[in-house]
Amino acid sequence: MGDTEPRPNSFTTRVTDPGRFHVLHEAAETLLDELTERYVVDRREAKEPVGPEPGAEVVRTVRLVPRSPAAGPLSIAFTDFPGVVLRLGRWFLEPLPDCGCDDCGEDPALLVTDLRARVAAHVEGGLWERVRRGLTSSWLETRLIGSGLRTSRQAPIEAAEARAARREGFAAPVQWAPWPLRAP
């Protein structure tokens, strides 16, 4: 994850109990059901990754698309590790766990809390994205701000994707709107 401590200098890729991360699948399923019940969204399921290969095979992907075009979509890919890859809006991407090895010691309960916090910030309208043109290339920027949460990221973006993003209005900062609530 973008907000974690650096990995230990002498880390290994040993994973003695990947099953401890199965709680992420359960938490993501519950969260998706809660969001579908509370907000005006369309739910779509597929078996496609939500971004670059996460290092584990994607078992399935659930995408929630708000019916308001001003509100950003959310996707959760379930991996066979077991873990999840969260995608908010156009570019915010978060694999949970980030590594999963024994040396990194990621706590599954804290990852569930992180998942819920990031999703809550997004559905409340806390995600901001844009493409910034540099001298030789373009960069994407994302910011996610919510209750007790503030993350910012920058990454290079391919020229074709940058052009497409600018055509779609992402040259200027885009702050996704809060998701519309279902009528009681």
What coarse outline follows from CA principal-axis ratios?
globular
Give the neighbour order of strands across the main sheet.
1-2-3-4-5
Low-confidence stretches: 1-11
Structural classification: alpha+beta
- How confident is the prediction overall: mean pLDDT? 86
Helix content: 10-25%
Could you describe the largest sheet, including whether it forms a barrel?
Answer: 5 strands, antiparallel
Order of helices and strands: HEEEEEHEEEHE
Distance between the termini: 36 Å
* Helix segment tally: 3
Give the amount of beta strand, in percent.
25-35%
* Radius of gyration over C-alpha positions, nearest whole angstrom: 17 Å
Q: How many extended strands? A: 9
Compile the SSE list and pairings:
Blueprint: H1 22-38, E1 41-46, E2 58-66, E3 74-79, E4 83-88, E5 92-96, H2 108-123, E6 127-133, E7 138-146, E8 149-157, H3 159-167, E9 174-175
Antiparallel strand pairs: 1-2, 2-3, 3-4, 4-5, 6-7, 6-9, 7-8
Helix pairs in contact: 1-2
Structural features, described:
- The chain is an alpha+beta fold and 184 residues long.
- It has helices at residues 22-38, 108-123, 159-167, and strands at residues 41-46, 58-66, 74-79, 83-88, 92-96, 127-133, 138-146, 149-157, 174-175.
- A five-stranded antiparallel sheet has the order 1-2-3-4-5, with helices on one face. A four-stranded antiparallel sheet has the order 8-7-6-9.
- Helix 1 (22-38) runs parallel beside helix 2.
